[in-house]
Amino acid sequence: MTPRTARVGLLAASLLVCVGAGFVIHALWTTRVISSSPQPASPLNMADALQSAFVEVAEHVRPAVVNLGTVQVSRSARRPTVPGPFADDPVFKDFFDQFFGRRGQGPSDEFRQSGLGSGVIFDKRGYVLTNFHVIRGADAVTVRLSSKQEFRGRIVGTDPKTDLAVVQFQPEGPLTVAVLGNSDVVRVGQWAIAIGNPFGLDQTVTVGVVSATARADVGIATYENFIQTDASINPGNSGGPLVNLRGEVIGINTAIVAAGQGIGFAIPANMVKRVTAQLVDRGKVTRGWLGVSVQPLSRELAQSLGLADARGAVVARVYPDSPAAKAGLVQNDVIVSFGGAQVEDYHHLQRLSAEAEVGRTVTLEIVRKRERKPVTLTISESPDATGASGGR
Q1: Residue (of 299, 340, 329) closest to 392 by Cα position
Q2: Of the candidates 353, 311, 351, 354, the residue with the CA atom closest to the CA atom of residue 334
Q3: Is the pTM value of this prediction over 0.85?
Q4: What is the rounded distance in angstroms from the CA atom of residue 74 to the CA atom of residue 361?
Q5: Which of 25-34, 127-136, 254-263 has the largest mean confidence?
């Protein structure tokens, strides 16, 4: 073999080695990419993951949910008595006691009416959040934990206008506390989990979705901005939490539509935060006040005023000596913005003014006789009487 032939053979062998190594490297790289690529999750795995999420939320939040028992005592001089022939029959006696209360001592009879509801612990000091209608008129409140421990509760403060109340008990040890989430980011269609004590059935968990947000004109409270859900809510659920899949409380269950199915309402967590902070601090809620009563802006009126849409609120009445009166607002003015925020409707204006800090100066934009103009006024504290009659 000549030196030239030897060099050609060596070069050919080297090329074969390089090509072979290239095939090996390509195969290894392809295997690595394929093995590291995310594999589509199977329906079974997705179902298991969702189920685990529900279980974890229930286990995390249920210890913070309590059963609230109330007793209301009233007196009456007259009470039906067991008919003579059945006076000694314990069955008829129990029947009358159940429906008319047990006979009391003295010249008048004492009747005890009991009630059941739910609540959620939101502070390690034993503060419990519930509905006002759960503890309304109660002479005594009992707080029963998930551990079956019972404590006497004290009503700290109530706010009938949002149907919220705070009760406190003295815990004997550490408590599980629920976290109030951000209800402003709640979206229609997301999972919703209701926890409470319907019909006295402790720690009941039901699951559904958020059906709608910002529901108003329901006729439950003065200030309405409800989360609607189809998670099953029944009598006794009132005051219990509506929770997302993170275990955050997004609302407090407050009412159902008795004539329908799967229509329940919860007070959004952000409204709850503002109210409970004041109830804990001073036992009552202070709200801002413009001094007007308002009504919806119809599409026809909006068109006659040259407005692009029916967003805003119509002034129906201006209260004497109120901030609105001093600022020169008159009947039929249309308020379209409040402190730079677009007013969506009259419910929105009510909430904006109520949540405004007393003493704050705000600028309203109004439409009067097809002309827009700014109006500046100073928010005052809402008097109870005016607030109850619809003044804002």
Answers
A1: 329
A2: 311
A3: no
A4: 47
A5: 127-136
Would you state the pLDDT for residue 93?
52
Q: Rounded CA gap, 128 and 122, in Å?
A: 6
Cα-Cα-Cα-Cα dihedral sign, residues 202, 203, 206, 212: positive
The answer to whether the CB of 218 falls within 8 A of the CB of 162 is no
Contacts of 192 (CB under 8 A, 6+ apart): 207, 208, 209, 210, 227, 229, 231, 242, 243, 244, 250
Beta-bridged to residue 206, according to DSSP, are 194
8 Å CB contact between 362 and 379: yes
pLDDT per residue over 108-117, tens digit each?
556 666 788 9
Contacts of 136 (CB under 8 A, 6+ apart): 158, 160
Task: Specify the pairing of strand 361-368 against strand 371-378.
Answer: antiparallel
Q: Which residues are catalytic?
A: 133, 163, 238
Map tokens 């947000």 to a residue: 213
- Picking from 392, 323, 328, the residue whose alpha carbon sits closest to that of residue 366 is 328
User: Tokens representing 241?
Assistant: 């939490």
Residues 252-304 have pLDDT tens digits of 999 888 777 889 999 999 999 999 999 999 999 999 999 999 999 989 988 88
